Amino acid sequence: MRLSQLKKLGFTLIELLVVIAIIAILAGMLLPALAKAKSKATGAKCSSNLRQMGIALIAFSDDFGHYPVGINGNRGSSWIWPSQIRQYLGGNTARSTELFKCPSAPDKANWKVKFSGSQPAEDGYLKGEVRLRPGGVSFMSYGYNVWGAWAGMIPNQGMGVYKDHQNWGETKPSQVLVPSEMIAIGDSNWDLNQEGDRDWSGFIGMYAKRQWPLPLHSERAEILFVDGHVNAEKRTDLVAQLNKDQGRKDFAAKRWNLDNTPHHERR
Questions:
Q1: What are phi and psi of 17, to 5 degrees?
Q2: What single DSSP character describes residue 80?
Q3: DSSP state of 174
Q4: Which residues pair with 226 in a beta bridge?
């Protein structure tokens, strides 16, 4: 075979550039699809986490006649809301700990625990309980709707803030007017840039930016409703302050409240 024939079997520079360009185009087409597939997968895992919490909330309310409260007050036996439902999620195990973190949540979105009393309630946990923040870093990214739309309303419109509190205590299932429309738990901790605002016990709401739902899934937040169903919601459908139209404000606000009323007068 002649040298000229061997040269013809190779690629010219132009041909190589064309091949590289085609590969780049294909990669550009495939990468967004792969990213979208990954986003759907993490969204499905987050939704599954919340559905399991929904089952736990219903089981807890069946056993005790009310929903869990957010915290037990700043005293020697203090705890936070996950401690009350973990018995329905596999108990005191590392697996149940993982259920409280969305796989899409950035590390800085993890909640820190407010309480720091003596044992057995150090950091808001029960004695011997597997911590949600081993090494001081929280693994919990979900928030619980304890206050309703506006903090401090009397009577309280959320799931319940403090144990046995006269005004902000436990909420009974019979008090929730439309369970399919009331928010219970969801992706939270929107205000990631203000470090000082994040030292709280995993609440979610629209009354303060630090509690706003966090849109982790294609600009939506996964939300568990009181009846147990989960849906990915736009933040404008969850935070009244992000809307100009009064009807949209009302729609967002009432979803936090047990009487399905916006209560803007309480703001």
A1: -65, -40
A2: B
A3: G
A4: none
DSSP summary character for residue 77 = T
Q: Do residues 195 and 150 touch, judged by C-beta distance below 8 A?
A: no
Q: Can you say how many angstroms the Cα of residue 174 is from the centroid of all Cα atoms in its chain?
A: 25
Per-residue pLDDT of the chain (267 residues), as tens digits, is: 555 554 555 667 777 788 888 888 877 777 676 666 666 777 799 999 999 999 999 999 999 999 999 887 655 555 678 888 888 998 767 677 788 888 888 776 666 554 444 444 444 455 555 555 544 444 678 899 999 999 999 999 999 998 888 899 999 999 999 999 999 999 987 655 444 444 455 788 898 887 889 888 888 999 999 999 999 999 999 999 999 999 999 999 999 999 999 997 765
∠ CA 78-84-85, rounded to 5°? 155
Q: Identify the CA nearest to 147 among candidates 132, 135, 133, 157.
A: 157
Interatomic CA distance for residues 98 and 82, integer angstroms: 12
Assess contact for 73 and 115: CB atoms under 8 A.
Answer: no
Residue 28 burial (CB < 10 Å; 0-12/13-18/19+)?
exposed
Residue found by looking up tokens 């020697």 in the block: 76
Structure-token pair, residue 23: 């590969």
Q: Which two tokens stand for residue 239?
A: 């935070």
